[in-house]
Amino acid sequence: MQHNILKHKNKIMSISGLLVALGLIAHFIFANTTISNSAFIIASILGVTPISLQAYQAMKVKVVSIDILVTIAVIGALFIQNYEESAIVTFLFLFGSYLEQRTLNQTRSAIKELTEMAPETAFKQLTGGQFAEVDIDEVEEGDILLVKTGAKIPVDGRVTTGKGYVNEANITGESLPLKKEKDDEVFAGTIMDNGTIQIVADRVGEDSTFGKIIELVEEAQDSKSEAERFIDQFSRWYTPAVLTIGLLVWVLTKDTELAITVLVLGCPGALVIGVPVSNVAGIGNGAKNGILFKGSEVISHFANADTVLFDKTGTLTEGKPEVSDIIHYGNNQEENLSLLLSVESESDHPLAVAIVNKLAQYKVRPIENTQVVKGGGVIAHVDGHVVSVGNKTLMKQENIPLSDDVLKKLNKLEKTGNSIVLTAVDHKLIMLMGIRDQVRSGVKQDLQKLKSLGIKNLIVLSGDNQGTVNSVKKELGLTEAHGDMLPEDKQAFLKRRQDSGEIVVFIGDGVNDSPSLATAEVGIAMGNGTDVAIESSDIVLMNSNFNRLPHALGLAKGTYANMRQNILIAVGVVIILLVSLIFSEWMSMSIGMLVHEASILVVILNAMRLRGYQLR
């Protein structure tokens, strides 16, 4: 019985509203007191039933809720035969509850939209090689799947054949479709805008990026910030306090209507709804823009941060070293490049990969007698030539002279953040190459936006040599740069900044960053980073989209400000209502309830602005 009544609370609200309208028409137009009072009494009884049931359920778990205030107020109004007030109060309270629920459902639309985007079927390659549509639960890691134009990509995987353009807006926030071809990564839930591809499943179901996004956003929206916990605690004490004040007013004045009005005007509905609706709206906006806040507490910390620490590789830089400079010594440059490519093609070292990518158009020759020199490089025989590839230590060991001009250029490259690769053929230096990790496109502008949003200190911490991090600092205009740091050094540095009173944000993407991500007030992981880094962080930038960082900070500040505005509105309205009740003649129970419900609508509309927030 109770369940059915609460289930149909919105229908009861509608009937109550119609009865209130009927009572007002009968009273003001037809002057029929019998019909108007009957309509108001039925509306009051109907309306107070679900409210009183909610009050009873709260009392069972020893919570003195706002529903108790309204129930007592309505019963009191009926007792003193103020039927119009009791009917209007119950309708407005139910209507306010309806608005709250509707708004929360709308602000949670990010979850609903994501869930609706979850693929339900996939075209799976069967034993005979043909493809058949199967339920998504039947797909396992390693399966080959077919994705056609307009279809949802069902799993995280890699393209094996075909090419096309994929819309990844719901994962990364990137509005433009991205070209995908062999060996490119694709994500579950994204849309194949154009083309046909086959993919091999790497992660399925809840393990996919899409599954983790839904889980993280659900957890974040269900979590409570310190402010929300305070308000929950506050309301437990506030409601009994209002009841006590109402009782004292009745004892001192013997004015039952005044005492009941105090109960109605003291309802802190806007205060209770204001903070959570702001946080839910902010988290929903973040999810829509490729930013995952793992809780509303994170938003408060991030909004008040003054120091941001960055790991360098994979965060400020691409994490993919590229050849930045080639200086030739001698003739036959094309042949020399071919010899270098042949040697480096045998290695999977990051510097070797950079060289192979740079020289892919040259011929690879057969290699003999490869010798790896620890801490130095590689010596190999190629087409009858002895090719030595490595650093200064290797050159010195092989008695290959380096002129003053070579050393000068080498030092200049090192100071600008390059790793050095020297190549000698038949014990004669023929090439000097500088390789460095490239700074992410647009990072400098993003960092300027962080400064404009109030971040005072932008600091890079890296395991790379000091020269490399200094060059990054200079290029990006950072506050400080610290190189040659182990993971424990980064964490210790972070703790020192915290001990000095700073609210510290740490941004990284590797396993070695996880201690610092966990220690910082706000840990931010790049979405393409390791699972450990993502799990230990508080915010995830999907697909390592660094340019979402300013939006994340602006959104956090906007949400935090919105939350404070809602608290001010809620508290201000209650104070104004109670003062008006004492010092004015016009304040009544129904007017007070109307203003009270209007304040709920105001904080809801204020919070809803966050759904469309964009950084200016």
Automatic annotation (TrEMBL):
Keywords: ATP-binding, Cadmium, Cell membrane, Ion transport, Membrane, Metal-binding, Nucleotide-binding, Translocase, Transmembrane, Transmembrane helix, Transport. It comes from Liquorilactobacillus oeni DSM 19972. Its main location: membrane. Residues 117-218 form the P-type ATPase A domain. GO terms for cellular component: plasma membrane. This is Cd(2+)-exporting ATPase. Belongs to the cation transport ATPase (P-type) (TC 3.A.3) family. Type IB subfamily. Its EC number is 7.2.2.21. The chain crosses the membrane at residues 12-31, 63-80, 234-252, 258-284, 567-583, 589-608. It is a multi-pass membrane protein. The lineage of its organism: Bacteria, Bacillati, Bacillota, Bacilli, Lactobacillales. It holds the Pfam family E1-E2_ATPase. GO terms for molecular function: ATP binding; ATP hydrolysis activity; metal ion binding; P-type cadmium transporter activity.
